Inverse folding.
């Protein structure tokens, strides 16, 4: 998306942003103790910053990919940060809380811009590796 296209879509994006904020407020506003006007302004600001971030990524020559690991995938220290602070390769992803941001350049090389935030645990069951191939844990059989 070019910068010109992004600026043309600005009014439409603002309308969508307002709709999302209004819908979120109607669903969850009753549970909040904060000032409604301030809360709506903050949510709109967060959404608008996300939209602008996405537009900046789309204007780049390189490709950017957001990646979330599935539960039971092996923990990879080079692209993940664990909130449980266990960086052991024997740990497995329990839950992905925030995606990893990868940059893929024109010749297909990947680099991690921002690590994925996960919670981890020690498991001893069949797990799915990043490559999609099954890994068997000690003592398991293939049927």
């Amino acid at each position: 998306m070019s910068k010109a296209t992004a600026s043309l879509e600005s009014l439409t994006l603002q309308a969508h942003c307002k709709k999302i904020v209004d819908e979120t407020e109607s669903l969850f506003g009753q549970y909040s103790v904060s000032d409604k006007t301030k809360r709506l302004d903050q949510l709109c600001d967060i959404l608008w910053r996300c939209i602008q971030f996405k537009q900046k990524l789309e204007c780049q020559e390189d490709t950017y990919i957001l990646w979330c690991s599935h539960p039971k995938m092996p923990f990879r220290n080079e692209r993940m940060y664990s909130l449980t602070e266990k960086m052991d390769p024997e740990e497995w992803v329990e839950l992905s809380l925030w995606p990893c941001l990868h940059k893929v350049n024109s010749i297909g090389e990947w680099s991690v811009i921002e690590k994925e935030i996960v919670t981890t645990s020690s498991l001893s069951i069949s797990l799915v590796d990043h490559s999609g191939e099954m890994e068997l844990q000690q003592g398991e059989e293939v049927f």
User: Anything to note?
Assistant: The mean pLDDT is 78. The helical segments are 3-8, 10-28, 36-58. Strands lie at 63-67, 80-82, 92-98, 100-104, 110-114, 116-121, 127-128, 134-135.
